[in-house]
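STRUCTURE REQUEST FORM
Protein name: peptidylprolyl isomerase
Source organism: Pannus brasiliensis CCIBt3594
Requested output: structure tokens
Priority: standard
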Amino acid sequence: MPEEIVAFLKEDLRIKEIYRNMVFQKIIDRVARERNVTVTPREIQGHADNFRHEQRLEKADDTFAWLADQMITPEEWEAGIEHQLLRKKLAESLFGREVEKFFAQNKLDYDRVSFYQIIVPYEKLAWEIFYQIEEEEIGFFLAAHLYDIDENRRARCGYEGKLYRWGIHPELATRIFAANPREVICPFHTEQGYHILMVEEFLEAKLTSEIHDEILEKMFQEWLENEFNYTIHNLA
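Status: completed
Returned output:
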């Protein structure tokens, strides 16, 4: 059975990914020992209890049934939880104090904007729609619903959501963050087509717990990749 699993993973081109994750875990274990970062049984139990509550595994029998379905033992589940918590605690130990500085240096990238857009394939059509919106012959949302080239965006009447500046194409970001709320931005061209944009609101960047965790994970993952490359180079 183990040989069959390995063969399948090789055929499915996942053996390299699993190997990388194994090396990552060895790096985490080693550096955690060096820095005296540990996970207590109480922390593991607390994480397990939270998971059981979220999954509505209130009874012990329900938990054992779930573990059997996942083909793992309680000990293996606890070991997996320990690895997750150790990774998180090591990341905080290594980079927790640097997150605020990184955020301050890159604050503009974490500004968010809520906006709508219409993308059409032809310049003439884009300008016709723009002038119709300007003359209030048609509303922006209805125009997006009728003319946008993307089916999903048509269903959302052009709504793109609340996005970070870093997550928006640079050309779009330049135009969006220079606009005023509710202003319809005249058509311009990218490889996607001809865009008409409208900003709903700007959201100034704040170092929330969510952004803190995003930055921490980014810094930790970059460090882990560097450690991985160093380890593999030394083994070669």
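Reviewer notes: The mean pLDDT is 90. The first strand starts at residue 112 and ends at 120.
Form closed.
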